[in-house]
Design goal:
Blueprint: E1 11-12, E2 16-21, E3 24-32, H1 36-42, H2 46-49, H3 58-65, E4 85-91, E5 94-100, E6 103-104, E7 107-108, H4 112-119, H5 123-139, E8 151-156, E9 159-164, H6 181-203
Antiparallel strand pairs: 1-2, 2-3, 3-5, 4-5, 6-7, 8-9
Bound molecules: adenosine-5'-diphosphate and magnesium ion.
Adenosine-5'-diphosphate (ADP) is lined by residues 11-16, 18, 28, 30, 58, 83, 99-102, 108-109, 111, 149-150, 152, 165-166.
């Protein structure tokens, strides 16, 4: 079994701790914070408590999301802006999801949020964001809202490439296979519009509601 209890996470979000895979420096292992699912359920209204604990698990949500219709295509372009998925694996601190660790040389890639707070919306990043949006539209990848701290920046061929590392998969109520292209197009347009609202909200001091 993989031992993570001796390692320090390289980052963490609200749901998971992220580790470099001890046997593979090119992979990331994510484990849900201990006790988090119980805490989330405790704070939900009674009708949501009826849902199983699994339905709040971000690793399971992501596993399903990687099975979405758009990602069953053989077109290699579907991976241009998305960390690869390698399944779930047991560790001594719980089940982990295993994904591609996005790096630049030997440095773990920075988030889009970090970049924007440091440099603002430069011409260079604007181009990267536009290219990312073209990919979303062409491949109709379903994501939750695209938040800058869930996107990281890979430097490739003299350009910055945006990669999704969290937040893949549609909002909970949408089936993963049985939806129309018309629906998917509208859905993706909405995510693109909201990504810009979120960026502008982040950069203007997060006042009021961003949606
Ligand atoms: N595959 C990855 N490559 C590089 N950095 C990552 C990767 N996955 C996560 N990170 C970093 O870890 C942080 C938290 O990961 P995330 O998956 O967003 O956790 P959570 O589900 O708790 O929100 C991200 O904001 C990012 O900085
Ligand atoms: Mg996150």
């Amino acid at each position: 079994m993989i031992v993570l209890s001796n390692s320090t996470p390289f980052a963490e979000g609200g749901n998971r701790k992220c580790y470099v895979h001890p046997n593979n420096p090119g992979r990331c292992l994510k484990v849900v914070h201990p006790g988090l699912l119980e805490k989330i359920i405790k704070n939900k209204p009674w009708y949501k408590k009826l849902r199983s604990k699994n339905s709040f698990d971000d690793n399971l949500r992501e596993q399903k999301a990687y099975n979405q219709k758009a990602l069953t295509s053989n077109n290699p372009k579907i991976w241009n802006h998305l960390a690869k998925w390698y399944g779930m694996i047991e560790t001594d601190i719980g089940i982990a999801s295993e994904t591609e660790l996005i790096k630049n040389d030997n440095q773990i890639a920075e988030t889009l949020e970090n970049y924007l707070f440091t440099h603002g919306v430069t011409e260079e990043i604007k181009k990267s964001i536009e290219e990312f949006h073209i990919w979303l539209r062409e491949n109709l990848i379903l994501t939750k809202n695209l938040i800058p701290h869930n996107l990281v920046l890979k430097k490739q061929d003299g350009k910055i490439i945006i990669k999704i590392i969290d937040g893949l998969g549609p909002q909970a109520f949408i089936p993963l296979h049985d939806y129309s292209t018309y629906f998917a197009k509208r859905y993706v347009e909405k995510r693109i519009k909201l990504m810009w609202s979120r960026i502008n909200w982040d950069l203007s001091g997060r006042k009021g509601n961003w949606k």
